[in-house]
Every structure is written in structure tokens, then in C-alpha cells.
Amino acid sequence: MSHIRQDWSPETYDRHARFVTDEAREILNWLQPKPGERILDLGCGDGVIAERLMREGCKVVGVDISAEMLKAARARGVQVIQASGEDLPFENEFDAVFSNAALHWMTDARAVAEGVLRALRPGGRFVAEMGGHGNVATIVTALRAVARRRGANESLAGPWFFPTPAEYARLLRAVGFDVERIELVPRPTPLPGRMSDWLKVFRGAFFEQFGEDAPVVIAEVEDLLRPVLCDSEGNWTADYVRLRVLARKRK
Ligand code: BEZ
Fold first, then answer.
1. Strand partners, 59
2. What is the pLDDT of residues 80-106, one digit of tens each?
3. Cα–Cα distances in Å, from 139 out to 88, 94, 128?
4. Ligand 1, pocket-test mutation among 12, 99, 135, most atoms within 8 A of CB
5. What is the rounded distance in angstroms from the CA atom of residue 73 to the CA atom of residue 69?
6. Quick check: 119 and 97 in contact, CB under 8 A?
7. Beta pairing, strands 177-186 & 189-190
8. Cα of 63 to ligand 1 centre, how many Å?
9. Which of 168, 170, 179, 194 has the largest CB neighbor count within 10 A?
10. DSSP conformation letters of 20-77
């Protein structure tokens, strides 16, 4: 029996990944939400940000693929719809589509961009932050190294979409957006616990392949990363790089 499972439970997320929504301050500044606006929160997770936007007077719909997360969002009073970001079911409905730390999980980026465009009214804005080119590169390299050494599946190390600004801007323009602002920003992110916690929460699917050996493999990856991502007092930092974008649906 496998000892490690990918765990997206709201409790685990709250304990080990709350920094993800805490760090959304800057992209919320880019959004500039106004009372009365209809906003789609794409990849809303447990609804913490959607709830914040509702408190500012916005009418928010949250979309996520995880039923467990949507249950937590609903409990906060968020109107939610379970759907894939790669197959959004909206047309000309929103003043803005907002997304924080979710788009890199959706590898059919063109389908996402087309769905976001369809969901917006003409002139509506798409404001998003995601992992950008080079995001968690040190962590992914350590995972690949350990997989290679053990003859395991290296491709499970990093399934994410971390585009460059040029690549993402090109995609958005191709589907019908004007890109007003796009930035790639290194943001080393202090972790609330150990690297092993981050690895289990965000890359559990990689470790599942090792079955009973998973805890040993996690310790091996952590050992590799300690000299570069852990300070002398035991504080861990993840080498996050954010891609932020503000784009507008052409009228
Ligand atoms: C991110 O938010 O950048 C991220 C989170 C988990 C895995 C990879 C990237």
C-alpha cells in the first residue's frame, strides 16, 4: 500500500499552504475590485479570496475541480461551480476573471485562455498570478535527480505549466486579449514547516510511485535541498517565481 497520497483536503491546505492565499496581496492590487462587479475566481480552492472579494461588494462565482475544496468554499458563502478550467461553461458573464496560484496546474493553457475570454464581457479583464518560468526549479531538479538515481519516473517531478512572459503574452494575444501588463518576479517564499511538508502537499503524486519507500525518498529529496533552501536555523524557503498578468478582452 502506498504511504503517500496527493492530499488536497482543506485541513492540510490550511496547515501547510495558507501562505498561497496570504501571498495574493499583490495580484489583488492588480485586480482593483470594485463594488458590484461580477468576478469569476478561477481555481478558487477553499474560497478564502472569493470571500474577501465578496466583503468588498463584488458578486463572485468560484470555480474549482476539487469537490472537497468547493465544499469549504460553499461553507464560506461562496457561490461555486465544479468545472475544469480547461472547459469553462460561461459566456459574456463577468467583468473580471481572477486567478491565483491555479493556472500552472492546467496544462492545456490555450483551452483555459479561450474559456476565460468567452467568460468575460467585451472589455472585461483577466488578472492572474501563477508559477512562471523557473518556478520551483531547484525543487524540481532535486526530484528529477532522485528519480533518475532510483530508475523511477522522472516526468512526474514537474507536470506544471510555468511559461515565460513572452510565451504567455503571445498565447493571450492569439486568442483575443490585449495584454496591458505582464511581469515575471522571483519571490522566494518562506514555508510554514519543513520542505517534506511542501513535497507531500504539492507533489504527493511523484512520491506515490515509490510505495512503502516514499518516506525514505522524501527524506532523500529534503537532504539534497537542505544546503540551498534551508537556513542555519532550520527555516525553509521555496524558490517561487511568479508570473503576473493583466489582460483585457478586445471589444
Ligand atoms: C506555485 O504556486 O507556484 C506552485 C505550487 C505548487 C506546485 C508548484 C507550483
1. 38
2. 999 999 999 999 999 999 999 999 999
3. 31, 37, 23
4. 135
5. 6
6. yes
7. unpaired
8. 18
9. 168
10. HHHTTHHHHHHH---TT-EEEEET-TTSHHHHHHHHTT-EEEEEES-HHHHHHHHHTT
pTM (2 d.p.): 0.93
45 lines ligand 1 (CB under 6 A): no
Query: Is any ligand 1 atom within 6 A of the Cβ of residue 101?
Result: yes
Nearest residue (CA) to ligand 1, atom 9: 131
**pLDDT over 90 at 10, yes or no:** no
Distance 24 CA to ligand 1 centre (A): 13
The answer to whether the CB of 184 falls within 8 A of the CB of 164 is yes
Q: Give the position of cell 467568460.
A: 119
Q: So what's the pLDDT on residue 7? A: 57
Instruction: Map residue 16 onto helix, strand or coil.
Output: helix
DSSP assignment of 185-199: EE--EE-SS-HHHHH
CATH of domain 10-135+161-191+239-249: 3.40.50.150
Give residue 202's Cα distance to chain centre: 10
Instruction: Inform me whether the pLDDT recorded for 34 exceeds 90.
Output: yes
Q: For ligand 1, is residue 131 a contact (CB within 6 Å)?
A: yes
Domain spans of the chain? 10-135+161-191+239-249
Q: Is residue 8 over pLDDT 70?
A: no
Pairing of strands 38-42, 94-100: parallel
Under 8 Å between Cβ of 66 and 102: no
**Which atom of ligand 1 lies closest to the CA of 158?**
8
Amino acid at 78: V
What is the band of 35 on the pLDDT scale with cuts at 50, 70, 90?
very high
